[in-house]
Design goal:
Elements: H1 2-16, E1 28-29, E2 34-39, H2 45-62, E3 66-71, E4 87-91, E5 103-110, E6 113-121, H3 130-144, H4 168-176
Parallel strand pairs: 1-6, 2-3, 2-4, 4-6
Antiparallel strand pairs: 5-6
Helix pairs in contact: 1-4, 2-3
Bound molecules: zinc ion (ZN).
The site of zinc ion has 4 residues, from helix 3.
Length: 182
């Protein structure tokens, strides 16, 4: 039923016209728990709570369950992790990432299927407010979910982060990059 419902939502939103961009037209996440870990170093408790809320709002779109594996001291850039390890969310900025964004997210694919990902949130001297961490994490999880940035300011995938709800385009994009949960 959920498959049918998701298809109807996609068709209705496509008919209405909305903006989304897929990193890859055919790569999908399988239905199954969205497993994630957090490296809490440098974050406040309120920021960590905001990350959990963002994950819940991400899986709510895709029909998956969130599975918090736990806190970790691993860094994606330091510790070798398999591509299909739980998605690691960390407050860390790699030296070789030169653009001036507040965060970035990436998805890892194997054989045409997304299997994992990573989210980097830029540490700052004055803590980023929790509401903004939540919005930012949703945006970066959109990248983990296979979406690209868009110009439409009604979408979370606009890098200006002007809205705090998934837009129609975000919703269509995430439904297209996730195999339906039966
Ligand atoms: Zn982005």
């Amino acid at each position: 039923m959920r498959h049918l419902a998701a298809s109807v939502v996609v068709l209705a939103l496509l008919a209405a016209g909305c903006t989304y961009a897929l990193a890859d037209e055919t790569t999908r996440w399988a239905c199954g728990p969205f497993r994630y870990e957090i490296n809490p170093e440098g974050a406040t408790d309120a920021q960590i709570d905001a990350v959990h809320r963002a994950v819940e709002r991400y899986v709510a779109v895709t029909g998956r369950d969130a599975q918090f594996v736990g806190l970790t001291d691993q860094r994606r850039s330091v510790d070798p992790r398999p591509l299909d390890a739980p998605v690691l969310i960390e407050w860390f900025w790699p030296d070789d990432v030169t653009f001036s964004r507040m965060g970035f997210g990436e998805a890892f694919a194997v054989d045409g299927r997304y299997v994992g990902g990573s989210v980097y949130l830029r540490p700052s001297e004055s803590p980023t407010p929790a509401w903004l961490v939540e919005r930012l994490t949703m945006h970066e999880l959109g990248h983990v979910g296979g979406l690209l940035d868009v110009d439409d300011e009604q979408e979370i995938m606009n890098p200006a982060l002007t809205v705090d709800e998934w837009g129609d385009g975000d919703t269509v994009g995430l439904l297209l990059t996730h195999e339906p949960c039966a």
